[in-house]
Structures are given as structure tokens and as C-alpha cells.
Amino acid sequence: MKNLWMKLLPVVFVVAFASCKDGATNKNVDKVFQHPALKGLTEQIDKNPKDATLYYQRGKALHGLEMDSLALNDFKLAISLDSSKAQYFSAVGDLMFEHKDIAGSLPWLEHAIKINPKDASAHLKLAKLFFYTKDYTKAFAEINTVLRQDVYNPEGYFLKGMIYKDLNDTARAISGFQTAVQVAPDYRDAMVQLGLMYSMKKDVLALQYFDNAYKLDSTDVTPLFAKGVFYQNMNDFETAKQQYSKAIMSDRDFTNAYINMGYILLQQDSLEKAKRQFDLVTQLQPDDAEAYYNRGLCNELMGNKTEAVKDYEQALVFAKNYREPAEGLKRLKK
Questions:
Q1: What is the model's pTM?
Q2: Domain for residue 283, yes or no?
């Protein structure tokens, strides 16, 4: 079964555009800054080129538009103009961490805390970094620093829940997530995590948390998919398929729902229908090795040996150590 949570993909930052002398590149950057979310800030920067706050604000806007190389450049420009603001250093560290530059992000976050030891945001970002590297003692230390300052900080409790979940301490994980929701009733991520924790216990309370999370943001169909996984694990395949169908109707690109729908159809011997689900995934995500393997399995079971071999070989192109398609090829090439 596909992992419920998508892994972040590493992104390499390009060289800061401000130092680029290439005319064509500068024209492209100028065009970007005409975006409605950026144009006003850019005009203010043109009038006040030494105002660090404006670069910081535009950096945040660029990050919101997923233009992170330009955002990083603006954050660093803000620092070059005013190195007394902790939030500027924190922004650089946070952006680097998002792109998995762990070593690069650490000194920026530490410098933010040096400037402002009470910067809760920087402490929590450091906690996330230590959680990612599984240095739980340091992560707890950063979280507790924040909670001593503000006992009602929901993110602190949420991060504690995530650490306890990683440590397989279900009771404390649930307690952390529940406290986060108690102090911030609209804390959606905590609701989803509570749903996942109760799903592992096969407790129907999970469904309530998933429903509440979906009500808060119906553009993200993860809770619908999670409900499908819950029913699938309970062997209620028809209800699971209904949830996956709802997820697909709301988000045609949510490939996990197609994959799990295909699994169920495969178990129900609906090979043509199952194959269609995996085929859709290969169209939406052409480098999905799992989809090629499962389509290959359908082809093998249907007697389409040539097509099965092609699918298994394609799966191995994208995941060379994938055991199942390799075994499939051995079966078919005897």
C-alpha cells in the first residue's frame, strides 16, 4: 500500500538571480516580479531599495508562489540590509530545511535564536530539524523552551506527538495531538494524525477526525483517502472503494487513490478494471515504479506475457532494486 504521506523532493537552489548579468535571465526575473502578488512590493522596492522589510515581505510572497530560489535571494538581501532581525535568518533556515539542506539550515536558525532567544518560530524549526535527524533529546529541549514561554502553543504539542509517534509511544503521541487540538481546534494536521493513530488501533473514532479535517479544507483529499485505507484494512472493500472514488472525484491527480483502488480490484479478480487504475497512474505519474509493477502483474495474470515483461522492466528502470518486478521477470523468462 502506498505511504499516506508524500516524501519531500530535494530541490537544488539556483544561483541568486541578483548576481546574474545575463540579460535574458534578468528579463525573465523582471517578468516574474510583475505577478499581481509581487508587483506592488517590487514597485515599493524600486522606490526604497534599502528597505529590508520589503525584501523580506517579497521573499515570503515568492515562497508562497513556490519560487524559492528568488525567495532565498530576497531573504538574504534583507539580511544584508538589516542583520538585526531574527525572522530574516529564520526564513532562510526554514527554506533550506524545506529543501532538505539540513546542514545549511542549522546555522541560520541558530543565529536567529542568538539574536532573539525567545523566537518561538526559530526554536520550533530547530525542533523539526532535530526530529528529522532523529535527535529527539535536542528536539524536546527546543519544544520545551517554547512551551515554557507559551503553554498554549499548539505546534509544540503537535511536534511532541510526532516524536512520540516516531518512538512508537502511541498513548503519548495521541496525548500530544489531542492537546494541540484542544488549544487550537482548527489544527488540521493534528486532526489527521489523530485519525491515523486511531486507525492503527482500528478504532472508528479515526473516521470522525478525518471528517473534521476534511471539513476544514476540502481541497486536500488526504482525509478521504485515509478513510478508504481504514475501511480497506477492516476488509470493508466496497466502502473503501467509495472513499477512493470520492477522493478521485475531488482530485483527479491523487494517484494513491487509484493505486489502492487497483489493489482492491486485483484482490477481487477484476483484472481489467484493476489494470485500468494502474494505467491511469502511469499517465498521471510516468515515473511511478509501483504502478508499472502492478499493471505488469495484471498483464501476467491475464496471460499478456509480452506486456507484463515490458511493465516489469519499466518498473525496474525507475526503481532498480525493486524486488517484485525482478521476480516477475524471472518467472516470465524461464
A1: 0.82
A2: yes
Half-sphere exposure of 131 (CA within 13 A, CB side): 22
Task: Give the amino acid at 240.
Answer: A
Distance CA 238, CA 244 (A): 10
pLDDT averaged over the chain? 91
Q: What is the spatial distance between Cα 228 and Cα 232, in angstroms, rounded to a whole number?
A: 6
Q: Is 234 in the same domain as 295? A: no
Residue 135 neighbours by CB under 8 Å, 6+ apart: none
For residue 307, the surrounding DSSP H or E stretch is helix 305-318
User: Same domain, yes or no, for 311 and 237?
Assistant: no
pLDDT given at position 34: 83
- pLDDT of 77-130, one tens digit each? 999 999 999 999 999 999 999 998 999 999 999 999 999 999 999 999 999 999
Residue 69 lies in a domain: no
Provide the sign of the torsion angle of the four alpha carbons 179, 183, 185, 186, taken in this order: negative
Question: pLDDT grade, residue 27 (50/70/90)?
Answer: low
Residues in the chain: 334
Q: Domain check: are 231 and 264 in the same one? A: no
Q: What is the pLDDT of residue 4?
A: 37
Does residue 287 sit within a domain?
yes
Query: pLDDT value at position 10?
Result: 36
- Which residue in the block uniquely carries the three cell numbers 548579468? 21
Considering the domain boundaries, does residue 85 fall inside one? no
Domain count of the fold of the chain:
2
Owning domain of residue 286: 253-334
Buried b (16+ CB within 10 A) or exposed e, 172-210: ebbebbbbbbebbeebbbbbbbbbbbbbeeeeeebbebb
Can you tell me the mean pLDDT for 203-231?
98
pLDDT tens per residue across span 204-215: 999 999 999 999
